[in-house]
Amino acid sequence: MEKYSLPEAGRRARMVALLMQLAPSEGYTLSALDGVKFMRADGPVERTPVLYEPSIVVVCQGQKRGYIAGKTYLYDAQQFLVLTVPLPFESETIASAAEPMLAVSIRINLQIAAELVLAMDASHRPRPRPLEPVGISSTALDDKLSDAVLRLLETLASPDEARILGPSIVREIHYRVLAGEQGGALRSALVHHGHFGKIAKALRRIHADYQQALNVEMLADEAGMSVATFHAHFKAVTASSPIQYIKTTRLHKARLLMVQDGATASAAAARVGYESPSQFSREFKRFFGRPPMDEAIKMKHALMQQPAESGPYITAQ
Description:
Layout: H1 8-22, E1 27-30, E2 36-41, E3 45-52, E4 55-61, E5 63-68, E6 71-76, E7 79-83, E8 87-94, E9 101-107, H2 110-122, E10 136-140, H3 143-156, H4 159-164, H5 166-179, H6 183-190, H7 195-208, H8 216-223, H9 227-238, H10 242-260, H11 265-271, H12 277-288, H13 292-303
Antiparallel strand pairs: 1-2, 2-9, 3-8, 4-7, 4-9, 5-6, 5-8, 7-10
Helix pairs in contact: 1-3, 2-5, 3-5, 5-6, 6-7, 7-8, 8-9, 10-11, 10-13, 11-12
């Protein structure tokens, strides 16, 4: 039996201590490694619309719940979350001042994942089966992955170690996920010949060109599907229609521009592809429950990003 440097309770306590050091303030703190950030909440956060990039989220203390299509996904000290595609859903945080929610988010690097899949196939390792045909799932955090996350946090406490050792541990974490229960879904997102892979490719196109004129016919044609087939498989993966997904993505991007760049509502609307500022304001309020600038003020207070988030996605705790 493989032995670990600390028993489970000791690993968890050490991870919490490191995250208290690495994430001294609420909100998001960027690490010394690109694609790795820390999340902290010192109190509960109500259900909020969020947009997560493809990522591995490990909560070391506290609890988060994701809601999508009538399903609830729990991720806490025993469960970790994997999103294989960029996915809008609702998130709720359970935390307190005595027990803050502390987590680490690792962006999935598709190049690393693809290299690992090729290496695993070359060794004739049995392929894990996808859990379900959607882009989000939570499963138990095992000793191997927990140990790798602890080593990553310890490495990130030292700039030199983060630069020299960090990338190899991030690669190991990708491997642990690919070799585990959620590996089938991640593998499917990498290949374009399966329905899941084709939808994943369409989602990447939407996030790259969301400000352009996109339509379902164009996306279906690029995926090599009929409109009806594309619509059905798109909804199976995202729990949303293609048009609603594009709209949701634009609204999240606009909120990000207002929070990070201080853009006005009309400027943000124009930059994400809206021709009518009034239509943007109506749809924004309907989706987030507040007018654009009121939501931007609330999110600035809630996130208090340390330093400002530099990635293309915004996620609310």
